[in-house]
């Protein structure tokens, strides 16, 4: 049969692998591949969802009620808050707005899996900078990589998938080295799980006030347990966020997502109690894995990293055979989300057998 003639696609896009989601789990397996919150939504959140705007009506295109809550929370103007369908959507919007053909986007690697595709889709060139030996951002090397072609720098803290933070002092020194007309995106999707006192806190420190080129990203997917509803937000200079709003897909944040996010803010105390439980499990998991001889980085997120190198696929298969779905990165390592309490012992058992 003759192959049909297809529309012309940019070669770099045709060669770009689609985003790979963490493998789905069977009914008896623990799904520890996507950094999801293992707890069910709070009853108050479910109750709020029951009274969501009817689905035959369009949502508020700018999620005004949620933006008002976040603006009041962080003491900023309404137009300094942008809401989209997950913080990853805002990443795409900002890079699209800042970079194009001939431009460069600097990011650490290995880091969030979506980063390499962001500049490519925009027509720009990605500049990946290897992590340091302790699986952290090498900010000196990243600053050295900034040129007159650089339009954006992506910083992920805690770093996904390895877990370590960027400290406040490191971030301050880095920003001082980067030209003020280069966009710095501080991706803090896992900020609520951070317990390290020296960690950068882009919103608490209000870094966007002294540095208008800094935008801070947060999400309701992880700590707040709303991954299935897709809602994230950015805080930054209004004109920078206007650029993100201009490149965004209209009406992408549903009324259900906005309602659930507001209800989650109302119930934040209960949710942060759950975060504390996850942090306790993370600490126990890291301690036990290190006792087995694994070189586990200091994770400040809701996952841990096993640097399994060439054995990654083999070890991931061993976890899967034990009904534990993890996230392997071939030739590099395995990310294991901190999940339900019973999953911890099973993870440790498998890890001990493949060490």
UniProtKB/TrEMBL annotation:
Pfam families: Aminotran_1_2. Its EC number is 2.6.1.57. It catalyses: an aromatic L-alpha-amino acid + 2-oxoglutarate = an aromatic oxo-acid + L-glutamate. Keywords: Aminotransferase, Pyridoxal phosphate, Transferase. InterPro entries: Aminotrans_II_pyridoxalP_BS (IPR001917), Aminotransferase_I/II_large (IPR004839), ArAT (IPR024892), HisP_aminotrans (IPR005861), HistidinolP_aminotransfase (IPR050106), PyrdxlP-dep_Trfase (IPR015424), PyrdxlP-dep_Trfase_major (IPR015421), PyrdxlP-dep_Trfase_small (IPR015422). The keyword Transferase applies. Its cofactor is pyridoxal 5'-phosphate. It comes from the Bacteria. The modification N6-(pyridoxal phosphate)lysine is found at residue 222. Homodimer. HAMAP family: HisC_aminotrans_2, Phe_aminotrans_2. Aminotransferase that catalyzes the conversion of aromatic amino acids and 2-oxoglutarate into corresponding aromatic oxo acids and L-glutamate. This is Aromatic amino acid aminotransferase. It comes from Microbacterium murale. The lineage of its organism: Bacteria, Bacillati, Actinomycetota, Actinomycetes, Micrococcales. The gene is pat.
